[in-house]
Design goal:
four-stranded antiparallel β-sheet, 11 helices, single chain, alpha/beta, 2 domains
């Protein structure tokens, strides 16, 4: 509880977990480390780690958590993971990878799971399933077997050792069989790439982050969002830095961001339908 966890400001553990890190650790804080597109910057991590520890008055250096693919739809390459893990290791910290979209990152990079995790210095992986087609299961992979027994106890104490666990295991077995998990991730990534390319061709649309996995972040005038959603488009309005602006209320010409997520079953027709809507909105704005 006296150690801090280093994470990106966009990280799910910071933005969307209702203080779970503090709860499960007995009070450990987060130290937020910036970087473009949801990726922690190595120099910023070095500086943040240097400020921590060394005194009884400060939180001590605890762990580093990386999200791959990031919350902004970018990916860490094995070299990028290795560079950050080396900083953590130099200061005696383990490395966790939040892999809710690990499959999407993996197929985007074309590397092996080992190259993206333990061979690059990752100690533990949250291996996602529900973001890639599973009904309701994730897995934790510990690359040091000596940590397994303690994790079993933590799982039990946290209420995650459920009866009928075989119904969770069955999902994971089917997911991994015949590379289904990678096939579904490839399909999702391909649809996102198609959507991003289509949006990039429109003059009033700005892509806010590189589309490297299955999420597209784009901005266009608020009036266009109103018309698109009135016509049946369903997506989140989005802003990492100014969430109060991610609303349909306000000036028509104000830029508003969108978070557009493609999954394994997204059809080309759905992508093209949204592109047609946005393009029609742009024509209406110019009339």
């Amino acid at each position: 509880p006296w150690a801090t966890v280093f994470a990106h400001p966009f990280a799910h553990v910071q933005e969307d977990e209702c203080g779970a890190i503090g709860f499960y650790t007995g009070g450990a804080p987060l130290t937020l480390v910036p970087g473009a597109h949801g990726r922690i910057d190595p120099d910023a991590l070095e500086a943040a780690v240097a400020r921590a520890g060394g005194s009884v008055h400060q939180p001590q250096r605890g762990a580093l958590t990386l999200t791959n693919a990031t919350e902004a739809g970018a990916v860490y390459t094995p070299d990028q993971v290795r560079a950050l893990a080396a900083i953590a290791r130099a200061h005696g910290m383990p490395v966790h990878m939040d892999g809710a979209r690990f499959a999407n990152a993996l197929v985007a990079l074309g590397c092996t799971p080992a190259e993206l995790t333990w061979k690059s210095g990752v100690d533990a992986l949250s291996f996602g399933g529900t973001k890639n087609g599973l009904m309701g299961v994730e897995a934790v992979i510990l690359f040091d077997p000596a940590r397994a027994w303690e994790f079993e106890l933590r799982r039990k104490r946290a209420g995650h050792l459920v009866s009928k666990h075989r119904f969770l295991s069955a999902q994971m077995e089917a997911y991994l069989a015949d590379d289904l998990w990678r096939d579904m991730a490839r399909a999702a990534n391909a649809r996102a790439a198609r959507l991003a390319a289509g949006l990039a061709r429109l003059p009033d649309v700005r892509l806010d982050h590189p589309t490297e996995a299955n999420e597209v972040f784009a901005t266009w005038p608020r009036a266009g969002h109103r018309r698109a959603q009135a016509a049946g488009a369903h997506y989140y309005l989005w802003s990492f830095n100014s969430p109060q602006d991610a609303t349909l209320d306000g000036p028509d010409d104000a830029p508003v961001g969108a978070r557009l997520v493609c999954n394994w079953s997204t059809a080309d027709a759905e992508i093209d339908g949204l592109l047609d809507l946005v393009e029609a909105e742009e024509r209406a704005d110019r009339v």
